[in-house]
C-alpha cells in the first residue's frame, strides 16, 4: 500500500554528466543479514548492501555492467538479471546450478554483461532457494545518450516494486514445505517498495509516498517482485497509460488497473489530473487456482478506514479483467515475428501429486490425501544438478549431468483442461534439456492443465525475449486457433501469463547460445519442478559462440 501525495513540493535531483558513448558501470553487492522491522517484529533479513529493496541500477542502452557480488550471508546465493538478453554471456545469467554454481558463504563472483537493444524496466533478484523474497531491486535502462523515449518525457520516474513479506525466515518456510511435501505457508503481507503500508499493523510511518504535482505527467515503473503471487495494481481515481513492458515499448493504451505476474514489469504514465488530495495505490492478489490458499491484502480484511482515497480493486478471481488487460498489449512497431518455423513445440504445464514413498513417514506426505506436491512440463519434473551447473557440464563435456531428450510434445495426449485421470498426476523426475540449433525459429504452445488445479502460470524464459502471438482458453486447437495468431504487432515479453485453463503461443529465434532455463515464476512451482531448459548450440564464428567462462566462476 502506498500513497500519492498531490501537494506542491520542492524536489532536488543531481544529475551526473554522461558521455555520449556507452559506459562500463561497476557496482558492489554485499549479501548480508540486516535487521529489518515489519509488522511490529524485527528479523535478520538477507539484503544487498543493507538495503531493502536492494539498490536500483540505472544504466543506458548499450552500457556494460560489472557487479561484484560478495556473499557475507549464511546461505548460498546467485543473482539473476531478469530479462537481460545476456548475448553470449550466459555465465552471467545467474540461476543456481543452471549457468553457475552458487556463490558460497564467504565467496564472491563478478557478473559482467552488456545490455544491448533493450530499454525500459527490468529487475534483478536472487535465484537461489527463496532468497529473492528480500534480495531484489530495479534495473532501469534508459535510451542511449541523445535519444529519447517514444512518449512525452515524464516529469519524474518512480520504481514501484510489489512484493511479499513473511513474518518469519522465508528460507525456513520453503525448507519446511520440502520436508512435509505440503504447500508452503503463504506470506503475511503484500508490500510496495518493501513497505506493507497504512493498512497493516505498525506500518503507517513507512508507507511509500509518491509525490505528483497537478498537471504533470510521471512515469511509474511497476515490477512484480512477489515470490508467488500475481497481483492487481491500481491508483485511486487515476487512469494509467501503458507504454512499455519487460523492457520493450508498447503501443500506448489506457487502463484503470494493471495485472502483473511475478517477474513481469509494466511502465505506465500517470497524470496529475485529479483534485489535490492523497490517493492510495494498492495491490491485491489475483488467485486463479481453486481452493489454493493465498495471502489476503489488508484491504480485503477488516481494517481501519483510511483517510486517503482508496481504489476499487478487482475481485481476487477476476479472470475477465486479467484477459482484457493482457490482450491490450501490442508492440509499438511492426514486429519481426519468425514465420517459417523450424521447431514446433507443445508443452503442458501444471501441478502434480507424488504418492508417498514407502520409506517416508506420514508427516513427510502432507499434500492432499497423503501425497507430496510436485509440478512438471510435459510430464517431466525438472531436477537441478548438484555437483555441476548445466552450462559448465555442457561446455566441459561432463557426462551424466543431463540428457537432451526433453519431449517436444506431451508423452500422452489427453483432455488437458478437462477432468484428468488421477493416473496422470505423478510426473517423472529428470534433468532433461531440449537442444536447439543456432538460428532455429521456434514456436512453443504452452498449455495449462487441470491436474490438481488449473492456474495462471507466469512462464519466464531466460536469455530471450519472445513474441506472444496468441492466448486463449480451453485446449489449444491448431486447426482453429492458428487463425487467432497476431503476426503483425504481437507484444514482446520475457514472461508470459499462461491463462488459467488455457494456453499461450510464443515465438523466438534461437540466436543466443548457451543453456537457458524456462520456468514458472511462482517460486513454489519451480521448487516442485515446473521448469525445463534449452541447450542452444553455438553457431559459426566468434559472434555466434558463447564466451569462455570467467576465471572467478564459482565452483561447486
From TrEMBL:
Could you tell me the keywords of this UniProt record?
A: Apoplast, Copper, Glycoprotein, Lignin degradation, Metal-binding, Oxidoreductase, Repeat, Secreted, Signal
Molecular function (GO) terms listed?
copper ion binding; hydroquinone:oxygen oxidoreductase activity
Q: What class of enzyme is it?
A: oxidoreductase
Residues annotated as signal peptide: 1-22
Q: Output the GO biological process annotations, alphabetical, semicolon-separated.
A: lignin catabolic process
Cofactor: record remark: Binds 4 Cu cations per monomer.
What GO cellular component entries does it have? apoplast
Q: Where does the Plastocyanin-like domain start and stop, copy by copy?
A: 31-145, 157-296, 405-538
The prosthetic group or cofactor this protein requires is: Cu cation
Reaction(s) catalysed by this chain, per the record, are: 4 hydroquinone + O2 = 4 benzosemiquinone + 2 H2O
According to its UniProt record, where is this protein located?
Answer: Secreted, Extracellular space, Apoplast
Its domain of life reads Eukaryota
Q: Gene3D superfamilies, from UniProt?
A: Cupredoxins - blue copper proteins
Q: What is its EC number?
A: 1.10.3.2
What this protein is reported to do is described as: Lignin degradation and detoxification of lignin-derived products.
- Family per UniProt? Belongs to the multicopper oxidase family.
- What is the protein name stated in its UniProt record? Laccase
